[in-house]
Design goal:
about 300 residues, disordered N terminus, 11 strands, five-stranded mixed sheet, 2 domains, Dihydrodipicolinate Reductase, domain 2, alpha/beta, binds nicotinamide-adenine-dinucleotide
């Protein structure tokens, strides 16, 4: 009663600001990983005047988190340890790596902090453990669509009837694969020498994540959206003539057929990452702060 009276009073004073204040449940955002995604999401949330405020940062390289903090008006706290961030935030954005994802997710869930996970491959590799923890602590994990379009259709398609075949082909310029742990010596050489497109991987999604962890989060997200990760066939291609990162998903099932092709500009800071992945995280935060949601 007290609260309502106060809210009404606030609303009468300044309807817009009071509505904004009541808009979202979680407002203090902690970011783990201040690279291409973490840094741009932080800067753009500030520019958009989002209800989310970046209050704490953590990166294994303290100079990276410090330099981002210096560029933000909200002057977030810079932590030296992952466990220190949770006192300063209500929700966490993981934008670190597939390798780091499990540790970040476990710690967030145990502290009952909802988590937006960009390294969806890290989720898939630990799906059972993280789903159990999310249920145990009644805390949500959000996996954004990232660099990909078409997941809304896939999620609807699997509701009734069978998905008969599911494929994703990801094609990037060769420099997008530099440093990938799964490259054979011959493939590494081809990245610099080949003039025509060549295949780096065909197989299941788990093998794709292990060999190309920084490139195939889209495949992990597709597999998860389909509900049956084992159904997905993944193809990874390098194309010396490509300027954009392309992802094509093809779904055939009782619902009909779906083909979605996304051609993304690589992020300037990290060519493995598409600019759309960064925007997808922003779109997710927008969804979390609005009362009306559009699309699945
Ligand atoms: N879901 C998608 O569609 C999608 C698209 C692109 C990238 N990604 C994934 O998102 C993640 C971030 O991508 P990015 O382009 O910003 O990468 P990036 O390499 O530009 O930045 C990652 C940052 O995380 C830091 N980091 C690494 N391990 C850490 C740890 N254990 N704790 C704290 N900080 C750590 C690094 O120092 C770096 O500053 C990657 O895993 C990437 O593969 C997902």
């Amino acid at each position: 009663m007290h609260f309502h009276t106060f809210s009404l009073f606030q609303y009468l004073l300044d309807p817009k600001s009071s509505m904004k204040k009541n808009k979202v449940k979680y407002r203090r955002l902690g970011i783990v990983g201040c690279g291409a995604i973490g840094s741009l999401v932080a800067r753009l949330l500030e520019k958009k005047k989002s209800s989310f405020r970046v209050t704490v940062l953590f990166d294994t390289f303290i100079s990276t988190s410090k330099s981002l903090a210096n560029n933000l008006k909200s002057k977030p706290k810079v932590c030296r340890n992952l466990k220190d961030i949770f006192r300063h935030c209500d929700i966490v954005l993981e934008a670190a790596s597939v390798r780091a994802a499990l540790q970040v997710a476990e710690a967030s869930l145990q502290k009952r902090k909802p988590l937006v996970m960009m390294s969806t491959g890290g989720f898939l590799l630990n799906q059972k453990r993280l789903t159990d923890l999310a249920e145990k602590y009644r805390t949500k994990i959000y996996l954004p669509s990232g660099a990909l379009c078409g997941l809304d259709g896939l999620k609807a398609a699997r509701q009734i009837g069978k998905i008969r075949s599911l494929r994703i082909t990801s094609t990037k310029p060769p420099r997008g694969f530099e440093g990938a742990p799964g490259l054979t010596p011959a493939q590494r050489l081809s990245l610099y020498k080949s003039r025509s497109p060549f295949c780096l991987y065909t197989g299941d999604v788990w093998g794709a994540i292990k060999r190309f962890p920084a490139n195939v989060n889209v495949a992990a997200t597709t597999a998860l959206a389909a509900g049956k990760p084992g159904k997905l066939k993944v193809r990874v291609m390098a194309d010396p003539k490509a300027k954009l990162n392309q992802h094509e998903i093809r779904v055939v099932g009782d619902f009909g057929e779906l083909t979605a092709i996304t051609r993304n500009r690589p992020s300037k800071q990290n060519p493995k990452t598409s600019a759309l992945a960064i925007q997808s995280a922003l779109a997710l935060f927008e969804r979390l702060e609005n009362y009306v949601e559009v699309g699945n």
